[in-house]
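thought: fold this chain, then report.
action: predict
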Amino acid sequence: MPHVTLSEIEEAAGRIAGRVCRTPVDHSPSLSDRVGVPVHLKHEHRQITGAFKLRGATNALLQLSPDERARGVVATSTGNHGRALAHAAAAEGVRCVVCMSSLVPANKLEAIKALGAEIRIIGRSQDEAQVEVERLIAEDGMTGLPPFDHPHIVAGQGTIGLEIVEDLPDAATVLVPLSGGGLIAGIAVAAKTLRPEIRVVGLSMRRGAAMAASLAAGHPVEVEELPTLADSLGGGIGLANAWTFETTRALVDDIVLLDEAEIAAGIRHVYEMEREIVEGAAAVGVAALLAGKVEPTGATVALLSGRNIAMDLHRRVVNGADGLEETD
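observation:
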């Protein structure tokens, strides 16, 4: 099974040090009281670009050859990877093109543009946007740095697992947002290598959860991309997935799916009780605890993966909307 190693993740941690934030792991009294075990929040939404994606993008970009840098980088994104890659590329003076579907929220598009990247809007799915990525690689010689299915991306995201185990050595359960699997694969390798008994749980939305559908089928499958509060978790895992599918299948202990009302409740709780603003994808761990869909048996860490939510949407959810349909 191809997967990154702990040594590669440790090397990534040294490589990206000083370029990304080491985010805190803080105790949550409200959630601990609610579920009866110590619950901690990993505040990755406080990352420089507002999401964990900066770790993988930075680790990958720093390993490009001079020739690859000169030809530029390209990727698909639901928003946060594009923003991270644009930030890392700008810091190194590298051309960056981000291809996205029309489902990506406008606030994420504008944030990527502000960092100097070129944007291409292609179709209504990540799979359609990937066609343009492949064209730019073939015709312009650009280097593709995908949002998850790449060893350097996985190793960069795995540095979060190192920090969790270092900061909370008695962690028994880690709740991780699940999309293409780069985040959970990296965290699972790091956490389970250092602490084999730790339980890693992936959380996703019911509306178009590609990794969950692929695991159920036993191989990567395509799913319909649908609008969801957890827009960062949308998109397929790639039918030719080489890294994250097998690692997720081997190391992740459980997958939990959440409906839109449960995700909205997670966003509200994080705002009202933790005084933090997070996007829907970042709220899924908290949402699962509130809904009773995860029964932790010991110290638990919920990863708050990003904060890049449109503020008008956040206000409507905080004021009681339970899904995108109720925010129109």
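thought: worth noting. The beta strands are 25-27, 39-43, 73-76, 96-100, 118-121, 143-144, 173-177, 199-205, 254-258, 300-304.
final: tokens above.
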